[in-house]
Amino acid sequence: MGDWPILGGSAFPALGNATATSSSSTHTKGSWAEIFSSCPFDTAAINIEVTIEDHGSNSLGSLFDIGVGAASSETVVIPNLMACNIMNQVDKKSGTFYSFPLCIPAGARISCRAQANASSHNIYLRVGLFPQRFTTQKPVRSIVAYGASTGTSLGTTITAGSGYVEMVASTARPLRELYAAWAPTVDGSAAMERYLAIGAAASEVDFSAFVGTKRAGDNNARIYTFPFVVPPGSRISAKCVTSSNYLILYGAEG
Question: Which domain holds residue 174?
Answer without folding.
Answer: 142-253
